[in-house]
Amino acid sequence: MRALHRLFHNLKRLAVDRAGGTAIFMSMAMLVLVASLGTAIDSGRGYLVRSHLSQALDAAALAGGRAVFSANRDADIRMFFNANFPATYLDSVVTGPTISVDANGENIVLSATAVVPTTFMRVVGLNTMTVKAETKVKRTNRGMELVLVMDNTGSMAGAKVTAMKNAATNLVNILYGSTETQNNFWVALVPYVATVNIGTGRTSWLTGYTASAYSPGTWKGCVEARVSPYEEDQAEALPSVKKWAPFLWITTKGITYTGSDGKVAKDSSGNTATGDNQWTPINQTASAGNAATGPNLGCGPAITPLQPSKAAALAAIAGMDAWSRGGTMANLGLAWGWRVLSPTWRGQWGGTTPITLPMDYNTALIDKVVVMLTDGVNQWYDYPDHPPGCAGIQSCKLPADADYTAYGRLSEKRLGTNVNGTATTVINTRMTALCTAMKQKGIIIYTIVLQENDTATENLYKNCATKPEYAFLSPSASDLAAIFQQIATQLSNLRVAQ
């Protein structure tokens, strides 16, 4: 500054030199030159401050968008802003950022102002300059095929299934926002128990199906597992390659049923049973719990394949319930979750599923995501009264055995063993193979193990998740809302709108 004042002093002396007209001209020219140079330098400082201000606002807005539903959102925004705009940068004084978020959490607007001290422009009376920056971020969802693979087994009854349904509902509401559909966004639901319900309209996928075997009722839609390797590394194979046997509980224990209409049911050979002690009424509702009976015993709600409607997704979630008997076979739910996402199955699902779905793996800007929840170990349920309704009835006294599942009964050794613990290990191994194969295809997997502290089960689901932070182990039912909200936020992709 001293040198600058000396320069202006000399220019002033030249200006009053009456003998030098040229000197006057030169002094004026130098004054203009210095003023222009000073303005350029100070303007450059202002530009640098504004540029850094904009960059800091962009980073803060993106961070805030990822935590848009978090109570710490504004604190996170300010933290990222401060980290990217150092205090007293070029001696500036910053006001802000101011934060504005709309009611749906879809649009975030940040602005900030910085007062920058000048250096050269002070000679013309301008001691500071003010620069402003604003950033707008729109929270938008990437194109996505999302499948919720949800445990509907009997152990989920009560607070667990209620919390699961509420949390899943919240996830769907966050991802759809206030609209009924989103561009390139589809949701599917795969409820599972010890079998999976593919829907009654898909009898062409079956082998050995006989409608009369379910008389006086009808087949509900559940299927048995295909033989290895068609539930693991060949899980994508279509029914034209390998079909499913329909799930049928009554035949293996020799029990027959009467319906509420009083009509008789027949055994697996088509013979009408005789003797009052061989009859038991059909009651295969979820509310029947462990006392349920019937050829569809333990069969939960049907798969909802990929579809675009928020209302349909919410209805499918609302339709879930806890279905007792059979046990837990989560690997089967995961296998059907894969089929819902596999491009091999494109055009197979019908209904409201677009014929273009599922899309190819690694389609640009399209994610394939599974969110999987369980509350139990993969195992048969060993109910003490086999078959149901036979306690104290001589004609029903058959050897005790575990319940019927998609792998039949434990005594049938379809998994190579009749020991429940060993069978659990086999199922877990098969599920691990499924997880690995799906992740190799680029499918993103989130896992939640609800109130289950079994070490092997926790390790199974931790290793199945795409990233360690995508596995949530042994939370309580009350934690589910926050977990599903966190997942929903992670699935939201942000872009700078302006």
Please explain how this structure is put together.
- By secondary structure, the protein is of the alpha/beta class.
- It is built from nine helices and 16 strands.
- The strands form five sheets. Strands 10-5-4-12-14-15 form a six-stranded mixed β-sheet, with helices on both faces. Strands 1-2-3-16 form a four-stranded antiparallel β-sheet.
- Strand 1 and strand 2 form a beta hairpin.
- It is elongated.
Describe the secondary-structure layout.
Blueprint: H1 2-15, H2 21-66, H3 73-84, E1 93-101, E2 107-117, E3 128-141, E4 143-151, H4 159-176, E5 185-192, E6 196-197, E7 222-223, E8 256-258, E9 279-281, E10 304-307, H5 310-318, E11 327-328, H6 330-341, E12 366-374, E13 379-380, H7 420-440, E14 444-449, H8 455-464, E15 471-473, H9 480-491, E16 492-496
Parallel strand pairs: 4-5, 4-12, 8-9, 12-14, 14-15
Antiparallel strand pairs: 1-2, 2-3, 3-16, 5-10, 6-7, 11-13
Morphology: elongated
- Proportion of residues in extended strands: 15-25%
SSE pattern: HHHEEEEHEEEEEEHEHEEHEHEHE
**Number of helices, counting only DSSP H or I runs of 4 residues or more:** 9
Instruction: Give the % helix.
Output: 25-40%
Radius of gyration: 34 Å
Class computed from helices, strands and strand pairing: alpha/beta
* Cα-to-Cα separation, first versus last residue: 40 Å
Q: Please provide the count of β strands.
A: 16
Task: Walk across the major sheet and give the strand order.
Answer: 10-5-4-12-14-15
Q: What average pLDDT do the residues reach?
A: 84
Low-confidence stretches: 260-269, 273-278, 385-398
| Biggest sheet descriptor | 6 strands, mixed
